[in-house]
Amino acid sequence: MKLICDPSIPVKIQKMKERVRWKHPSIVQRGIDQTCMVLDDRNQNNPEFSFMVIGDSGTKSHYGNHPQRKVAELMLAHRDECRFVLHTGDVIYVVGSQEYYSSNFIEPYREFILGGDNPKSIPYDRMIFNLPFLPVPGNHDYYDVPLMYRWLAGTTLPLRRLLRYKDIEIGWHGSYQGDAYARAFMDYLGANSPQDLEHHLDKHYTAKTNTGRCLRYEPGYFTRVPNRYYTFRYGGIDFFALDSNTFNDPSPLPATKEGDLNRRELHQRRQQIDQEELQILAKCDRLNPNIPADAEQLDYLSAKLDQINEIKIDIEKQLTSDKVPAVDFEQLHWLRNRLIESWNTADVRGRVIYFHHPPYVTEATKWHQAQTLAVRHRLRWVFEAVAETLGSLIKERPIVDLILNGHAHCLEHLRTVDTGYADSHINCIISGGSGHRPRRQREEGTELMETFTEITGKSTRKVADSMLYIGRHDYASQKRLPYSCVRIDVLDGCPPKFIVKPLVTERINDEWYSHQFQPFVV
Question: What are residue 232's DSSP bridge partners?
Fold first, then answer.
């Protein structure tokens, strides 16, 4: 059963452009850059500041446990010392529906939103943050439910039993191709009349940068991001927020014997996970959510079903990649040009990029996904173009100082080695363990190997090391489920130093414990 579907890349791009009225005459006439914003909190020029990173958070309370709320409570202790929160995507599970924003976002993060003392009264598309939340969309924020299944996937238990899914967060709606995310966080200009649009632009697009006028993000007053991908400068650091959902399609399988073998293996794998899904659903039918032990098992099985859907979608992307994949080159060219501009700006001392799909990861379900390789190759292509243009200007420094991701349900620190390309010696932090059930590290170990096709043939070499992994692990009869986010302190100096502080709360059986991890410098 195909319960979840992922819109095509061209549809994602076009729909998001319509929502922000991309290059509308009134916007062009005012010289507005729709990919730039200024975070105006009266402290943006301070070279020393802190921020937090969360991701893959958008779940509700499960049988009396609310991991996302536990992470939010960790964050509250650092709220007054941090200037903003970066969200690496998957704001709402399972299909980014607006109906879950109240329980899966507003309720757990209520102290960060104006009027949070009465969270049920806050419309999801009218949120104003007292501490900026600056997100990028995840794959679940774009997912939809096929129309023929929506009436079956409502909120009543009999309908869920008909589908043989119990208590999985799929309601009456999907994301409507990312519409719910756009209304919650982006400056949704598509809702303005022509007259209101001009008034809105003159009121909120008053900041100025080297690329023209841009949106002014003001905590406590107006808290919208300008686009699905954007950039802002804070404390001399350029931050680049990307939408990796539009450059993650796999390359075509080759029309060779090897390609045919890969296709057969993918079809076999899909049949295997279809059988695994049926077995899980049969187990669900035998469990009673009103019995605590059964409820815990249902929670685990629900996470397995979500994982299976991810694998199915990844396999589907590979099997349909017989043509040249749709790639969001407009965004990739934008990133290339903005990175080059950043390196040629004397006031900039560092660069951070954040997006959903990690190019490097050791979470068991993600390293072998075709989307991981696609994102890595396209990001590498951008970095190569930047390095070629800059030449000796970058000296011994990496193109960017830090890459932040989600998607993998863990907290991980990786560092690339000499890959032979311009993505060498970069620190990567994955913060994707902020609410959804954590997953294990792969069994192959902490060294990441990649196979390259070169003139002399194929070769395999190490491209990255995993330095820290915080994810699911069992010890004897104990089930240990750590949920996490990170605080990052930025120090003065050029190049800047980043002190990374893991913030972890762990559920061991039915008890919760907070853990102190040693901060590390990147």
Answer: 239
